Prior knowledge:
Blueprint: H1 6-21, E1 24-26, E2 29-31, H2 38-45, H3 55-59, H4 61-64, H5 74-88, H6 92-99, H7 115-124, H8 131-142, H9 146-162, H10 169-212, H11 215-218
Antiparallel strand pairs: 1-2
Amino acid sequence: MSTTAPSVLTSAASALIRDLAKNRWRNGEATPPILDIPGDRATLARCLGRPFSDLSWLQAERFVSPHLPAGADTATEQAFFLVAAMVCGQSPRGRALDTGRDRVSSSDDPSAGSLGRAMAIAVVHRRLLDDKGAEGRLLQLASQDTAGLHRRLPTLVKFLRDGRTPLSWEQLIVDLAQWRYGRNETARSWMRDYHRTRLNLEANKRRKDKISDSPESENR
């Protein structure tokens, strides 16, 4: 498990995501979020697909290192850097979800959560893939070591975000930080979140469809 306390990890992750996606206040003045500054955004995005020994990650230090928890281990540091790069590597559609310019406004849409929850939303609400496909992708991730997960995850996350799928970046940082020593627990948590969320969303959808098809609804 990560050597950083969960509450400290979550707080630091939230601060990083705010810095990336929301206006930042410096000396009483608002400055644009990193997502709205093309050069800064590109600095982080170009890190994707490169080993952590690559010099491009050093250029990302100025944006990420201020938010790292004190005494963070390597797994935690890499989780922060990788998620920051994924946030900045999104398409405009994905970035708009984070900055609030493209709100998921439907009252039927569930809130953001873990990767497993996001996969369920992608299946039931977004129709980006089917049940077997989603389960297969989660199983594929579960078989990866940390390096393999870091290689495969950005493609899946970009796919979900391009489809306007809610995802908690903060939770993803926490999960990635724990992967090295808690892979089985994290993978199991993703799979459970996926199946529970999918079943709940499908049940809710059936209830709404039944109500909309009832004679009472037709007479309104």
